[in-house]
Design brief:
The chain has helices at residues 69-80, 103-118, 126-135, 139-143, 179-186, 199-208, 216-224, 231-237, 240-250, 273-286; strands at residues 3-12, 16-20, 26-45, 51-55, 87-92, 148-152, 156-157, 166-172, 254-259, 266-270, 291-297. The protein is an alpha+beta fold. Helix 1 (69-80) packs parallel to helix 2 (103-118), helix 2 packs antiparallel against helix 3 (126-135) and helix 5 (179-186) crosses helix 8 (231-237). The active site is at residues 10, 138. Keywords: ATP-binding, Isoprene biosynthesis, Kinase, Nucleotide-binding, Transferase. Residues 68-143 form the GHMP kinase N-terminal domain.
């Protein structure tokens, strides 16, 4: 029986780097939402091993199928669940690759959801969670793609929170900014403690009161006081990110423009879907080679 799953783009509305750990990794605090645009994945059980077909507009940039996180996640789970059904995955790739949108991680999480369904496993099964964590740092938050805070190296997840949906425009200027390079440029000293992300207060407010879930303007006002600590080093490495942010900030109706993750995708939050679509048309006329997508977040 063919099963299908949607792998939405992950957007970091905020990203605070709290400290550099002794093992070289960084502890983060990030408010994560998911877009209504993304990749599609299907799974057809059958056979004795896993296989993958990648198609779609971004398929060529996805790299060798054997290195795809979909297969990595599948093999990690199968190692822990020997009787797990094998079969063929078909990935329709639309999101840009290495773009700060967690596309590969979301694809892997979708694969785990499909396999959990096929193998009659719950998503909170420790074996599923371990496979997600070992596949990549963004995979656990994508496993159940709902708005929440993500902390540490990615495995410390807060409760899902109810926030209003946000009209948004996402732009990727088709430039690669490797995450390790961005952290090296940040050059955070080991042991230094950085300020907490004000989004943590937003999380508490959302969990304690339902009012924030009804007021989009209040949410955007709170987000203006937050940050993405990786934005300045990413812009230093790829100035075109700053150009894309500048175009968003000049667009009528844009209330906040920021980079997602370690880049190079940026997003703008708008008053209305119409304003977001108009900005997309305007910017696309100047940069027809950029990936530009009007969508909703949350």
């Amino acid at each position: 029986m063919l099963r299908d799953a949607f792998a939405p783009a992950k957007v970091n509305l905020t990203l605070a780097v709290r400290r550099r750990r002794s093992d070289g990794y960084h502890d983060l605090e990030s408010l994560v939402v998911f877009a209504r645009t993304g990749d599609d994945l299907s799974f057809a059980p059958g056979g004795t091993d896993f296989a993958l077909i990648v198609k779609g507009p971004a398929a060529a940039a996805a790299g060798p199928d054997a290195d795809n996180l979909v297969l990595k996640a599948a093999h990690l789970l199968a190692h822990r669940v020997p009787d797990l059904p094998r079969g063929l995955f078909t990935l329709t790739k639309r999101l840009p690759v290495a773009a700060g949108l967690g596309g590969g991680s979301s694809d892997a999480a979708a694969a785990l959801r499909l396999l959990a369904e096929a193998g009659r496993l719950s998503l909170d099964d420790p074996r599923v969670m371990e496979a997600a964590r070992l596949t990549g740092s963004d995979v656990p938050v994508c496993l159940d793609p709902r708005t929440r805070m993500m902390r540490g190296t990615g495995a410390d997840l807060g409760q899902a929170i109810d926030l209003p949906s946000l009209p948004a425009l996402m732009i990727n200027p088709r430039v690669a900014v490797p995450t390790p390079d961005v952290f090296r440029k940040l050059a955070l000293e080991p042991g230094r403690e950085c300020p907490a992300d004000p989004a943590a207060r937003l999380e508490r407010h959302a969990l304690e009161s339902s009012s924030l879930a009804r007021r989009r303007a209040d949410l955007v006002t709170l987000l203006v006081g937050t940050r993405n600590d990786l934005e300045p080093p990413a812009i230093a490495l790829a100035p075109v990110i700053g150009e894309a942010l500048g175009l968003l900030r000049q667009a009528p109706g844009c209330r906040l423009a920021r980079m997602s993750g370690s880049g190079a995708t940026v997003f703008g939050l708008f008053d209305t879907c119409r304003a977001s679509a108009a900005a997309a048309q305007q910017i696309r006329a100047v940069h027809p080679d950029w990936w530009i997508k009007s969508t909703m977040l949350g």
